[in-house]
# Entry
Amino acid sequence: MSDIIQLLPDHVANQIAAGEVVQRPASVVKELLENAIDAGASNITLLLKDAGKTLIQVIDNGKGMSTTDARLCFERHATSKIKDAKDLFNLQTKGFRGEALASIAAIAHVELKTKQENQDVGTLIKIEGSEIVCQEVVSTAKGTSIAVKNLFYNIPARRNFLKSDTVETRHIIDEFQRVALVHPNISFSLHHNNNEVYHLRASNSRKRIVAMFGNKMNEKLVPIEEQTDIITIKGFIAKPEYAKRKRGEQFFFVNNRFIKSTYLNHAVNNAFEGLLEHGTHPTYFIYFEVPPNTIDINIHPTKTEVKFDNEKALYAIIRATVKHSLGQYNVAPVLDFERDATLDTPYDFKDKKEVSTPHIIVDPSFNPFKNDIPSTPTPSKTTSISSGSNSNSYKKSYAQTDYKKDAGTWEALYSSENIQVESTPPATHQEELFKSEQETETGKTFQIQKKYILSSIKSGVVLIHQSLAHQRILYEEFLENITVKEASSQQLLFPINVSLAKSDIEMIYGIKSDLESTGFVFNEFTKEGVVIGGIPTSITESQIILVLEQLLDDMKLEVPDASFSHFDIMAKSFAKSLAIKTGTVLSAKEQENMVNNLFSCKEPSVSPLGKATFKTLTLQEIDTLFSK
Ligand code: ADP
Ligand code: MG
# Structure
């Protein structure tokens, strides 16, 4: 018998390969956009006609190609991105197979125009079914434009297999979004049949998400952030109340690539447990980085599934991170606080709005007992309440309950445009009740059972849990001090020797630099313990051991990995050990400061550990109590 095996001609091989790479117009879009990004473009335009069936064109201002490269780029396995196999483990680019352009050129009419920065003129190449039909010198801008026309013109079966324009456009937009979301620093535009669908300016990732999904998205987003040895996580989740019936806006990006992962999606859902209405799905945009050698990149060119080495650990970390942010930001909307739209991360206090002294309008002639339910009285006098100086006063000891923050959101509770703060009559003796006609007081507080503070607000009353509220105040102050300000430290006259178990010494040693940024100074680490020479100004000498022990306990409980957000754990732990406890009597001034400070927090309504810090009872609710 004669030999029957022969090598396939290139164009046939390319067509077969194209079947793998190009399933539909959206696959071409993805490849071309990725090439433009790999070429370092800062501006990318995508033009489509008829859902990409007639035209897909990507124009970039990247580095362009030389004339030789412009010809070579359509060859199979022609790539500038890797040179040998070891490069596969340190990929910096989206593409590396050198297959895309060869495949696309095998099944469409392709027109390439490209010019490098240092060239006077560029190159135009037309290629149809893998055959170069034209090569010319052309005048063109720096960068590359690739137009792919009549996709699958030579594979009718494929062309007929395409779905409706609506469906194919949807697929294209999905690809476009996935690429544009990971590259907020690149500006993108998308035109379909001469209509501009997207025009996305270069910005940051939050703004990119908002530009893509609409302004309403801004208020829905809660930032997430975490860093450990095996993963760095950034991104946003949408608050549970915005969960969707359809599983639409769920994005995982690993090392700047969009991926699908049922497993990790489960981790996110799990973190939302109990917060979602049945049948709804959380929205999320989670970007994470893992060391390239812990992720299998040698996957199918168009598949979005990936394989991770330490999947279980990633699951746990993602779940904990999302849960943490939910605890931070997702609070029942008890009161409609004016939200700071620039809210970024719990550690970022730099943008905190300057707070102003609240002005409270009081009507001294107002007698609350004149009518059953007082209607809005006319303002006749303006009193301003100021509770002290600005944030520098944190340098005092928290334990001495020295609250000196200004009131900010406080205002929202106690006044609004035309509403007066109703005076709270000191409910003691009859005579006093009626005397209050002259002595109207606002924001008057009462301590109840050495545990709660009761205060009157415009809509009724607010009941504050003193210890949990103080935890919130301290927590935010600590975060601010640790991450934004220079840590202030007080030098100890006599260094303190704290003896600790060996494992505890190691643990403290592991977070030494983090502790130092809170103000701790470690003179020495010995076999038996640590010698402390300085402490944060916010704690007293007698509290050192308490604080460290609490911190060690919290670290052991919370930390699956030793580098797990130390700052946050520290701030929580410090807040917990230093907050005033139930059973502490508070003076009128202390109560008032507590209220003011709580409501100037970013998230006043939950303690750092997620418990409610206050409850309100509206006048209506109070009325119903008496209506039966
Ligand atoms: P890969 O991206 O896997 O390398 P492609 O077939 O997509 O393979 O592209 C082949 C080569 O053509 C790339 O390696 C790159 O050198 C060049 N190339 C493709 N698109 C562009 C572009 N927009 N700008 C500059 N060079 C490009
Ligand atoms: Mg490519």
User: Anything to note?
Assistant: The mean pLDDT is 79.
